[in-house]
Amino acid sequence: MNDQEKPNHKEIEKEARKTDIIDTAARLFSEKGFHDVKMDDIAEQVGLSKGTIYLYFENKEALFFSIIEVRLAELIAELEEILRPDEGFRHKLRQFVLRFLQYLENQQAFFKIMHSEKMRLNPDDHFRMHDYAAHAYLTIFRITGELIRRGQEERVLREGPPENLSKILLGILDAYLYHRVFFTTKVRIEEEVEQVIDYFLNGTKAETG
Fold first, then answer.
1. What percent of the chain has pLDDT over 90?
2. 36 lies in a domain?
3. Which of 15, 125, 2 lies closest to 65, judged by CA?
4. Per-residue pLDDT reduced to its tens digit, 39-55
5. Residue 188: domain span
6. Would you say 17 and 47 are in contact if contact means Cβ atoms under 8 Å apart?
7. DSSP states along 4-60
8. Using CB atoms within 10 A of its CB, is residue 1 exposed (0-12), middle (13-18) or buried (19+)?
C-alpha cells in the first residue's frame, strides 16, 4: 500500500465513529428491542448529535441491517481464516468450534437481536433479514463442508456426503451457543469446546467395556 492508499486520520476517525454507532445500536436493540429504541437514544449513548448519526445511516432500519452485515462478515472471516494454516484436522476443528462460540458470545447483542427481532420486523424487512441470514448460513455451511472434507481426507471422519456432518456440527454449535447467550452458565467456554468436539467425533453412545 503506497502513501496515497493509506487511510488518513479523518478516514480512520470516521470508521471508528461508525463502529461506535454500530456497537452502541446493537447493544440498545438487544436490551430494549428495535422498535423501542430511537435514533436520539443511540446518539445520546454515542455522544453525537442525531444529525451526525444520519450522515452515516439513512435511518434506523439501515443501521439495523448494517449491524447484521458487519457482524456476519466478521464471523465468516474468522472461520475462513481457520482453513488456511497447514495444521491437521483436529486442530482446525478445535479452532473452528472455539472461534464460532467465542465470537458470537462476545457479540451477544447481535446474536440476541437476530433471534428476538426477526418476527417483529415488517414483512419487507423480515424477508431482507432472512436473505442476509440465509446467505451467511450458506457461506458458513460451505466453510464447514471444507473442514469436514479435511477430516475425511485424514480418515478422522467417516466417508459420506460432507453436508450431513456439517449439519450435525452446526446444529450442536447453535444449541450450545443459544444456551450460553440466553441462560446463565458458569461453564468455561473451553470446557464446552471439548464437549462439542467429543460429541461430534465420538457420538453419545455409552462406552462399553
1. 61
2. no
3. 125
4. 999 999 999 999 999 99
5. 61-202
6. no
7. TTS--HHHHHHHHHHHHHHHHHHHHHHHH-GGG--HHHHHHHHTS-HHHHHHH-SSH
8. exposed
- 173 closest CA partner among 143, 149, 152: 143
Distance CA 96, CA 112 (A): 21
Domains in the chain, number: 1
For the chain, report the end-to-end CA distance as a whole number of angstroms: 62
pLDDT in tens, 82-93: 988 788 999 999
Please choose, from the candidates 85, 64, 90, the residue with its C-alpha nearest in 3D space to the C-alpha of residue 154.
Answer: 90
Instruction: Kindly indicate the confidence band of residue 32, based on its pLDDT and cuts at 50, 70 and 90.
Output: confident
**CATH for 117:** 1.10.357.10
Cα-flanking dihedrals φ and ψ of residue 117, to 5°? -95, -15
d(CA 46, CA 194): 39
